[in-house]
Amino acid sequence: MEKFELHILGCGSALPTTRHFPTSQVLNIREKLFMIDCGEGSQIQLRRSRLKFSRLNHIFISHLHGDHCFGLMGIISTFGLLGRTAELTIHAPEGAKRLFTPLLDFFCAHLPYTVSFHEFKPGEKPEVIYTDRSLTVTTIPLKHRLPCCGFLFAENQRQNHIIREMIDFYRIPTYELNKIKNGAGYTTADGQDIPNNRLTRPSEPARRYAYCSDTVCIDTIVDQIKEVNLLFHEATFIHKDLPRAKETFHTTAAQAATIAKAANVKQLVIGHFSARYEDETILLHEARAIFPNTLLAKESLCIPV
């Protein structure tokens, strides 16, 4: 199967610690890179990941809290120093362009490339905000202290694979192959109908990754993320600290695991850890008690989707 990997660049929350960088991730989908949130130091972590900067053309920002977007200026400036020429697109909630334009004008006035902002309005309904021939990105409505959303990255289902031996056996001309890939059968010169399932085999199932950023626990997301291959869900607190989670509009590890179980996802990774926990395995144990197939996010972790 073609590459579909999640790289964790940072998994801490707002208060800096020596253990974690703020939130940032990169998805590598068929060697195209998509960054999700961009906390401070993301350009350093991107370099440590050994991912190619030139293949990152889209950054998705879940909300405009600093620990999710303060790294944007650093990464934009770094790309300029490296002589980038390709356009960089920032997908972010309304207000991002107004917020960052004065900073860009001051610090990055002579960039050799264009930075464009594609703004969206986080709301109660999912919205498609990006699509190409292999991928569709849809917002996941969340509830935080300011407008916020997650993102669902879904591979577009690929066409069936041609069985070359059958094409040669029936002497099917090349101009018929696209129709066959799209599900058509073939009628030979002597009138024999050949069904599509004899000429093709199904492509691999499309994979999906769901990223749920800062939010209170809301079960309205379950239907949208049902049976995804991998779910990242913030788990800032342990359940003993539920009052603090509610106060700050965050989720506990137990709640994240409950969402994963209800959605029947294949794998859960938790992150956005509060600085109060010296040892985050306490969050992992809490989540695994409800959803065993849970991973703890950490810097430089790479997870195949």
What can you see in these coordinates?
The protein is of the alpha/beta class and 305 residues long. The protein has 2 domains: 4-158 and 204-304, Ribonuclease Z/Hydroxyacylglutathione hydrolase-like (Metallo-beta-lactamase, Chain A, 4-Layer Sandwich); 161-201, no CATH class. 26% of the residues lie in helices and 27% in strands. It contains 11 helices and 18 strands. It has helices spanning 42-48, 66-69, 72-81, 96-107, 164-169, 177-181, 196-199, 222-225, 242-248, 253-263, 281-288; strands spanning 4-10, 24-29, 32-38, 56-60, 88-93, 115-120, 128-131, 135-141, 149-155, 161-162, 186-187, 193-194, 200-201, 208-212, 230-234, 268-271, 294-296, 302-304. The strands form 4 sheets. It has a 7-stranded mixed sheet. Helix 10 (253-263) packs parallel to helix 11. The longest helix has 12 residues, at 96-107. The protein is globular.
